[in-house]
Design brief:
By secondary structure, this protein is α/β, with parallel strands linked by helices. It has one domain: CBS-domain (Roll). 39% of the residues lie in helices and 21% in strands. The chain has 5 helices and 6 strands; from the N terminus they run E-H-E-E-H-H-E-H-E-E-H. The protein has a 3-stranded mixed sheet. A hairpin with a 5-residue loop joins strand 5 and strand 6. It is globular. The protein starts with 13 loop residues before the first strand and ends with a helix. It binds S-adenosylmethionine. S-adenosylmethionine (SAM) binds next to strand 3, helix 2 and strand 5.
């Protein structure tokens, strides 16, 4: 099974200049933990997770730029899901943006999506 065959929810994105509270609101409203940060062309610039928001609160950081992770581990549509599952385990993360050749964000794959997939196979 390839990444592109996974049923995934429409990806919610944010921009580098967005307010941290706005990012937190998007997480709560959409019941998600990972939000890719993109530029005006939709190109991946970073990722912010609920863990980063907790860190921001703990350290009194106010800006998304200060808490987002810029070196993002990604998945590609033409990769097998099990390869992505191993990447998730290797880097101790739980969500990877799916990007095309130009690093444009196409979706997101989470450990939860993979669990759901395995649940359906049995
Ligand atoms: N294990 C937890 C999890 O899976 O979310 C938390 C630990 S994880 C190391 C926390 C950090 O990883 C956060 O700073 C977050 O921005 C970063 N992170 C999450 N997904 C990422 C990804 N796909 N690529 C790079 N960093 C990522």
């Amino acid at each position: 099974i390839m990444v592109r065959e996974l049923e995934s929810k429409p990806v919610i994105i944010t921009h580098e200049d967005d307010d941290l509270r706005e990012v937190a609101r998007k997480m709560v409203d959409n019941n998600i933990n990972h939000i890719p940060v993109v530029d005006s062309q939709g190109i991946l610039r970073g990722i912010v997770t609920s863990w980063d928001i907790a860190d921001a609160v703990a350290r009194g950081k106010k800006s998304l730029k200060d808490v987002m992770t810029r070196r993002v581990i990604v998945a590609r549509e033409n990769e097998p899901v099990d390869v992505v599952a191993r990447r998730i385990d290797k880097y101790n993360i739980s969500g990877l943006p799916i990007v095309d050749e130009e690093n444009r964000v196409k979706g997101i794959i989470t450990a939860e999506d993979i669990s759901r997939l395995i649940g359906k196979l049995e």
